Structure formats: C-alpha cells, structure tokens
Queue: 2 jobs
Job 1
Amino acid sequence: MQKIPLMDLTGSFPQIYEETMNKIEYLVKNTQFIGGDEVAAFDKEFAEFCGVPYAIGCSNGTDALVIALKALGIGVGDTVLTVPNSFIATTEAISCVGAEIDFIDIEEQYYTMDPALLRKYMLTTKKNVKAIIPVHLYGQMANMPELMEIAKEYNLKVIEDTAQAHGASIEGKMPGQWGDIATFSFYPGKNLGAFGDAGAVITRNEDLYIHMKKLINHGRWQAKYEHEIEGYNHRIDTIQAAILRIKLRHLSEWNERRRKVADQYEDLLKSLDIIGPKVRSNAQHVFYVYTIRVKNRDEFQRKLKEKGIETQIYYPIPLHLQPAYKSLGYKTGDFPITERISGEILSIPLWPEISEMTIACICNELRALLVN
Ligand SMILES: *Cc1c(COP(=O)(O)O)cnc(C)c1O
C-alpha cells in the first residue's frame, strides 16, 4: 500500500504554483525583498479577511505572541495564564518578555481553556495576573464568550493564539474580534501557510496597532532613521507576504474542504470505539487537524505506521511536564484533563485535497484495528 502522509502540502500546487513562481521571479528580478507594496497589501487583505481594521505581518507565530505581550505592556512581575496542551511557543513567548507562566486546564470535550477553571483560579490566586492566552486548538476556537466575560471582570488582557484556527469563528465572530490581539502563524503546514516562516498580529485597537507596528520594525513609524521607541526586527519577508496574498484568496474554500473531509471521517468512524472531534454549537471549525481519542494509543499509532498511515500527537507531553519547565515545580496530577488526553489523542491525515478514496482507505484500516 502507498504511504499516506499526515498532510500533503503539494496538494494546493495545481491552484497556486504558477502564479506563485511568477510572483517570486518578479520580486527577485526587482530586488523587492523587504517591505514594499506586497507587505502593505497583505496587511490590508488579511485584516479584511479577519474582519478587523488592523493586521501586521511579522516573522512567525512565536514572535507574534512576543509582540502582542510587549504591546500590552506585560513583563517582569506579571503572570500570564495559558493552557498546558499547546505548542511550547505559547509559553516561550511569556518567558521571553520576563513574565511568569501559569496554566489553566482545558474543557475535555473541546481541548481549550476551561472558563470555569479560569474563574476558580482567579478567585483564589495571589499572583499578579495580567493576561490570558487562550489557544484556539486543532481548528476550533476556545469558549471566547465566557472567557471574555471573566477577563472583563478581572481586567485581564486577552491574546488569542490563532496559529491553528485561521478563519474559525464562534457566534459568527472570528479570532481578533474577541480579545485585545490575535496572533497567527503561517508555518507551512497551518491552514494558511507560507513557503517558510511567517506570522501576523491583528487588533481592533488603533494604539495597539501603532505600537505593534513599531515593535516589529525597529521602533520606526514613518522616517527610516527615526526610532521613536526601541523595537526589534520581527518583519515578514516580502516574498512570504506575496505568497500569502495568493494563498489567502483560497483559504475559505480550503477550510470548507477541510470541513467536508471531517464530515466524511465522522460518517465513516461513528460506529467505532473512538472519540472524535466535537464542534461547539454556534461555531465554525476549520480542522487544522482531525484529532481522535483511542485506547492503547501508542500501539494503535505504531500499527497504523506499519500500514503506511502517518499520524501525529498534538501534544504528547503537556507543557507543565516538559523538561524545560522543571524549575517551575509542576508535577503529574496538576492538570489532569490535559494529562489524560495527552495519552489518548491522535491526529489522522487531513489536508484540503485528500481524496475520498484515501479517507475511506484510512477508515478501513482504523476499523480493522479497532474491531480486532
Ligand atoms: C505553530 C504554533 C505556534 C508557533 O508558530 P511559529 O510560526 O512556528 O513560530 C504557536 N502556537 C501554536 C498553538 C502553534 O500551533
């Protein structure tokens, strides 16, 4: 049997390859490598896509989080809350600005920050909590209506880590329409992916926009060698902005196809002893990945690999138990829901162009393993 990858990034090439290559050639011939019209146009078009007034392309999704935290004035002496089941970028950014990390466990059904646990934490904490970073995971948004209510009550800033949910929504509102800032990654495998590293920050607040724009480009606003503040170089490459503009025009259609693939999976897997993804009522899921929960996950994954089916675990080790955070003093049992699901979750192949036949083939193998 042919190998089936977790995702096939060449799937979109028939739609974008020629236009992209022509654009790259044009930019190279004109030596347009930094800034310029493509970056300005991307910022404008991405803001429009997100339904917010301001977007700024930047170097990657990790830097986007750092920029957001800095723009909100968060640093030494402040605590920032996020979830233990995210990619380490989320917590790296908190440490990067000198703030303290703490965690809120997740809602078991949706894998995102549990508002009830956030409220409980805020009622008892003695820490100087300044912000929360809910992570919109696997393509689905966190419970923003409830999280925003608590954030308002306790005067917390909200940064939405949207590296996995470009185009998702809840109650008809997308990331960036809830929190102070939403951050994006355009890592190649994300729903909107560059041909390298790239990211973005978006906001509805003009002051935050101006501040972030300066932070991204050495503290300058208009004049090339007037630096109003000390910023940094977090810029997006012109070539990446140009590629993202081309791909952005297809993003809604690709997200729609991801949902169709998910429907097919749901249909074919419903009688099996697995827990599939649950879509919140009143929400649009964009299925960055299709994550199921199975018993004996590691053995199951190994057997699928033998059959040529690639899978991935997002994430096998909760952040609070990572060697890098040993000094924070967490132990097993601190965040039981994340710990439990980390031993059960498995993401199976999904990309917009995956064929119905390939899905059927994967589901047959899953069924064969589960009924034996
Ligand atoms: C991919 C990802 C990031 C980091 O993005 P980079 O562009 O790779 O720096 C941050 N948070 C989450 C949840 C991610 O999935």
Note: The first helix runs from residue 13 to 29.
Job 2
Amino acid sequence: MADGDWIEWDKKYVWHPFTQVKTELPPIPIVSAKGMDLVTNEGNVIKDMNASWWVNIFGHCHPNIVKAIQQQIQQMDQVIFAGITHRPAAELSKLLIEFTGFRYDKVFFSDNGSTSIEVALKMAMQFYHNQGTERKKVMALEGAYHGDTFGAMSVGERDYFNRPFERHFFEVEYLPLPSEENFKEVYKKAEKLLHSGEVYAFIFEPLVQGSSGMRMYSEKHLDELIHLCQKNEVLTIADEVMTGFGRTGKRLAIDHLKQVPDIICLSKGITGGSLPLGITLTGQRLYNIFLHDEKAKGFLHGHSYTGNAVIAAAAVATIKTWHEENIDQKLVEIENLYQSAIERLEKLDFIENIRLNGTILAFEYKTDGDSDYFHPKRDSLYRYFISQGLLIRPLGNTIFLMPPYCVTQDEIDKAITAVENIPTDY
Ligand SMILES: *Cc1c(COP(=O)(O)O)cnc(C)c1O
C-alpha cells in the first residue's frame, strides 16, 4: 500500500479535536518528533514552540522517558488499580509529594487534566456532604478554562465554547480576574460570596489563565483570596494543569505563593508530554473526612485505566529527569533567553501588551476590536507561522511562545524574526 494512503484515511475517517473542519486546512502529517522538531511526511521541520498543546516539557522523545516506557511495558502493562497496587504508582506518589514540597499527603490518579478537575470538585463537594452540610456554589474566575468535561466546563468561563451545554451546568459565581485597578472590588465581592455560607470551593488557574489568552495576575492578590477562603472554611483548588512543571518559572505556580491551596490538579507536563495522566493532590485533613465505616463515604471514583503502570513509569522518569538535568536552574536560563526577544518585540508597533511569566512569553497582535478567540487574524497568523516552520497556535490575536525547555536562543530568535516579518496584509 502506498505510503500516502494514511493521509486519505485521516481525511475520510478522523474527526479532529477543537476544529471547525469546514474552514480549517487539512491537518499536517507528522511522521517523527525529536527534541524541538516535528518532521512532516515531506521531510520539513516544524519547531514545536507550542510544546504540543503545552504538554511537552523536555522536548520530544526524551531518551529517559522512552526507556522507562519500554522497560515498564515489557514487565507489566495495565492492571486494575482498585485493590491492587504496583511500584510505578507508589514511587510516583512519593516523588510527587517530594516535588510539591511535602505540602500534600495524598495522590489520586486519573487520566487527563479535565478528570483531575472533576476529581477535585467531587472531593470538595463530598468533603461537606460527608460532614452533613450542603453547600451549593463554586467560586471561580472570569475567563477560566478548566477542561471539557461537564464539571470542568461548569466552572469555566461561559462562552461560545460551552454555550450548547450551559443550561446543564451547576451554580458558579465568578470574580473578575484580579488587577491593581479592580482588586478592592474583587475582594469585596469574594467576601460577600464567602460570607453567604453557600460556597464550598474556590477554583482558579494560579497566576496565568492559559486558554483565555495567557492572562496573568499577581501572586499577592491570589494569596489574599486564598487566605480569605481559608478564614471562611472554603476549600481552595489550584488548577495547575498548565502551570505545573515549570511553566511559571518554578516547579509549581503555588511555589510563588505564601498560602497553600487545599487541592492541586496536575496533568500536562507530568509525563514529559509522552502519555496522558491526571493527578489530584490533597492533604490528610481532607482525606480523613472520607475514612468511615460506611462504604458510601469513601471517594467512589475511578476510571478503567486509572494508575496505569506504563504511564506512571513515564511520570517517574520525568521527575527523575527534572532533578538530573537541574530543570529548576534551566527555567531561570529560559527567562533570560527571552530578554532580547522582548526588546525586539517592543520595537514593533503592531504588537502590544508584551508579558512574560517564567517560560511563557505572550503578546497581542494589535487589532481594531477587542482580543477574541475567534478573531479572524487567528487562522492567518497560524498558517503564516507554519509556513515559517514554526508551530505557534495563537489564541485569537494573542500570540504566545511556550516551548519545551530544550529550546535554544536560535529557536527563540527564529520565532521573533517570524513575528517581525508578519506580512501587513495578513
Ligand atoms: C488543558 C487544561 C485543562 C484540561 O486538561 P485536558 O488534559 O485537556 O483535559 C484544565 N485546566 C487547564 C488550566 C488547562 O490548561
């Protein structure tokens, strides 16, 4: 069979994610990936400045992770994780507790970012239910994105992404994203909500809201909101699915905070971008509320593939590689790599709102209207960057770089040169 046939099979049979198939160009056939490079069927190289939807932290096919997966799959594949345990899951849990600075005590496994959020929300709801109190509302931030399952959509921004489903969502109260200008009002609104006694949890993307356009806010404001929740006995949930594993310049975004959220959710970087995994971490205090002679008071949640040994082995290799390659230090170096990029961007009159947090550099392509995910510029910018050999997926007119940590100065320069040369008729 001819080598090209599989591209026809894709066209004929595959329904791709997050895509309006009618207006999008056909997907780019990729045949191999190594480090920063995605190689097309025609042998062209595309630099993965997007870290393949923000998951790939060390570059593609890191040998440590490849080896860990190979060794584990030969020894033991999937085994049921209820009533059974195994070394990769136990070792990963120990490493995660260390990685998060011993601020958490228990590790719950699921399969992706959205499910790690579902788990967190269900834990928070049942925490009160088990104690005989019912609270019905969640507090969240405007512009939030927490995933595509129903609980995760419920606590996200209500917009065109989830409009068809909106009437099925549960009750959520939104705070504006904190800023110097609005913080007094935001705090007052939070106080009022929390005093009502109806709120059981506050969920947020710490320091950077990803999908709504790399919107950044200060750790000081977040600390104050978390503290306010603690005073009112409302559980706090940090959605670190994107920010975790170095994106904000530290291992976790909460490493920038003084307060410790009750629950954190991890996913994207956790296996180095090799395999899907969701993790929800919490402390002994919450865990204890689920220990009971009554079976129904346990946390009765799990997925068929929960605790998969091969995936856990990939995550163990990821954390070990983190330490071996001193990624903590590498993150500082990446921030430095961006300095000359920022200087060059500042000279461009069609770029505004340049901002940096750790390894995320974001800015807007100036337009007449507001920034918008469905901005008409988005598709042309995306196609232009691809034509320049760069995988940069703008969120509307927001352009951002979020590369794997093996990125070089040359590769960042290449991306900035492409931005400088965006044709004006695009
Ligand atoms: C990607 C993302 C999710 C959802 O993760 P999936 O693995 O895509 O389900 C949740 N929260 C944040 C902040 C994310 O960036």
Note: Residues 112-114, 117, 145-147, 205, 210-211, 239, 241-242, 267 surround pyridoxal-5'-phosphate (CB under 6 Å).
